[in-house]
Amino acid sequence: MMLSRTLLMLSLLVLGVLGLRVPRSPQEKVKTTFPDLLDAGVDDLMKGLKRKHFTSVDLVRAYLQRIQEVQQQVHAITEINPDAISIAQSLDEERAQGKLRSSLHGLPMLIKDNIATKDKMNNSAGSYALVGATVPQDSTVAAKLKAAGVIIIGKSSMSEWMNFRSSSTTACNGWSAHGGQVFGAYAASQDPSGSSSGSAVGASLGLAFAALGTETSASIIFPGSQSNVVGIKPTVGLTSRSLVIPISERQDTVGPLARTVTDAAHVLNIIAGKDPNDSYTNAQPFSQPPDYTKSLKKNWLRGKRIGIPRNAFLPTGKPNIDAPVLAAFEAAIKELKAAGATIIDNANFSQWDAYYNSSITFYGAVNTVVAIDFITNLPQYLAQVTTNPNNITTLEALNSFTKNDQREEFPTHDTAVFDAALTIKGTNKDPGFQYFADQTHAWGTYGGVTGAMDTYRLDALVMPSMYAPGVPALAGLPIVTVPMGKYPAGTQVTALGACKLVAVAPNVPMGLSFLGSAWSEEMLIGCAFAYEQRTLVRGKVSPIVRPTTQLEDVVGW
Q1: What 8-state DSSP symbol labels residue 331?
Q2: Is residue 152 in a domain?
Q3: Which of 68, 168, 172, 302 has its CA 20 to 30 A from that of 194?
Q4: Which residues contact 201 (CB under 8 A, 6 or more apart)?
Q5: pLDDT digits 0-9 by tens, 449-506
Q6: pTM exceeds 0.90 for this model
Q7: Residues tagged active-site
């Protein structure tokens, strides 16, 4: 972890953003109003770039300075792209020549450290096992961002191996050997949730325009909810997973985390689409994905039928946790009604009990599917690695490295999930595996989301985000989380897990999730946008950690 921090600081020094701030005289200051980077979105940033109030180089410098300000408090970033400023310079030159690649031309983003890039950054999934490993080309989603003129300024920290290494008794949300422990920004020692921890924290604090995360089950939705941002978990197959370090081909998906639904929709527009290197994208029912920004209508909820699957709410049994969430949820339902939606309560999942009983044991169908996919899909990714310093080619080799390299902090953080997966013999191509895959898919579809939607003729389902991800994950179905509120003053502080991270405390954010059938992102984005615009919750919840650098501090360096 110390090596990673040292490399990060060295990168910042090379880029000229540490210790080199030279104040300008009042006469030199640009007389203009700059957007606050804590909240600045695509419209604000693109307007400023168009009017030449600042450049993409200015944006990169400002975001890197903001990262430096808060890194020791939140550890949201694992690595900085040492070429970020030179890339920004090239994109500024293109803009000056009248060439704009996309609606995001020249905007800096973060990507999760399991999304591979062929550049000077690592692709580690938080593990020293893959530090120094290189890939033959960018992951498809990273390549799409670059082609659109997005500047990838760094890799965001994450739960090591996408939270698929350690038992619940030793795992810590947001911890990885390579990146350290991520903390949320809304309470002391806040649990950031995982596994896209740094992406959510980075987006929330304005350390970049937006970020990419990945989700197998909950890894975008939970961190997004905990960090007061919007997260889109797309239908599996809407975004390519080629050269994204995997857990499960059936459940993995790549999606944006951003401060607004608008920003997230713009990012999704860039990364969605078919890819010959990911066969799941062939299932897309369109030749080209929709323009998701066309769903950004304030009256979208009018006439929509929205269901509440109450039987899938999974209370903790602790009133200080459950009561505030349910109170905020009921207030959100009133807003949906006021916006013209028809609410159908108890639009329940018919096979919820079977799913839940299976999910609580590692060897139930739910976890068996993910484990068999992991032992199959991980070697497939590793076989594409062009430089592999530690010769990690299988889960067995990874497990051995993790147990024997002191930097991996074993057994403080155990390898119980690796160990259990290795007891399951075979691959996901074996005939006996199909039974489990079919069972879990049924729980997610006709026994879950699509069954409820068909039965009650719904446009979408709505749930508190803390209860939402499990059933949709089984069938690769989409979710959008949007800020819903926060735990109120007087809430009992609750620390959970091996690292005693604070999951519940006054000011910790909570989210509202919209769920739907496959390929229903247009509908879910529209619902989330209309709710967001009615309530503007994000602006009512302030972080206790806040970088101070703004564009006016760097323009004219």
Answers
A1: H
A2: yes
A3: 68
A4: 74, 76, 156, 182, 183, 184, 185, 192, 207, 223, 227
A5: 999 999 999 999 999 999 999 999 999 999 999 999 999 999 999 998 889 999 999 9
A6: yes
A7: 112, 195, 219
